[in-house]
Amino acid sequence: MKENLIIPNHIGIIMDGNGRWAQERGKIRSAGHRAGVDTFKRLMKYMSKVGVKYVSLFVFSTENFKREKQEVDFLMDLFVKMFKDEFNEIMEANARVVFSGRGEPLPKKVLEAMRDAEEKSKSNTGPVLNICINYGGQYEIVDTMKKVCELYKDNKISLDDITREFIQESLYQNLPPLDFVIRTSGEQRISNFMLYQSSYAEYYFPQTYFPDFTEDEFDKAIIEFNKRNRRFGGIKK
């Protein structure tokens, strides 16, 4: 990593291309998902080292349940393995793990593994790792609005209390807005990822499949981020 580069405070990663990475190598799609997890564990330690404070990782969308049952079942088992048996590498990054998404219909074993990961890492003082699993940005907004309506109905808040900041604080996790979103594989879509939090995020779409997204590829992304002129609606300087 070059010196004097601005490191985004909150980075979102849409880890796309695992299945295609495997298929192009004559392997089953599951091999790509396994490789993607291994890549992320290395990348997480590197991001912690260079000073990233918040990472939101999109690992499984609400729509991904439409995939073949065999692939979904493999991913559920992989999540359990990652959150339990292979959690040491996340701990080495000193990351505190939180989760965003809906519990239903995740299997009980996955929910238990998620709770274990949060408990094991709750005292860590490094970056916050927000894992988005069974997640959809529109669903997050719907669930947040339901929460706000309940508070209003119970006279716990007034209409004047409902501000942009209040909505931000009421989302699945109260994290800072996204500064930079990386979607690997060359696809140029946001796929319902953290819609509210990414209002002024910069986007980067490398052609690289996620299993090949190395530390050097991450450095390239940060260099690109530093070329952007973030105006937040103001005038270009």
State the assembly state of the protein chains: single chain
Helix fraction bin: 40-55%
Percent in strands: 5-15%
Just give the CATH class. Alpha Beta
Q: What structural class do helix, strand and pairing data support?
A: alpha/beta
Mean pLDDT, as a whole number? 95
End-to-end distance: 26 Å
CATH level-four homologous superfamily name:
Decaprenyl diphosphate synthase-like
Q: State the low-pLDDT regions, or none.
A: none
- Biggest beta sheet attributes: 6 strands, parallel
Number of helices: 8
Alpha-carbon Rg, integer: 18 Å
Q: Per CATH, what is the topology? A: Undecaprenyl pyrophosphate synthetase
Kindly give the count of domains.
Answer: 1
User: How would the global form be characterised?
Assistant: globular
Major beta sheet, strand line-up: 3-4-2-1-5-6
Task: Count every beta strand, where a strand is a DSSP E run of 2 or more residues.
Answer: 6
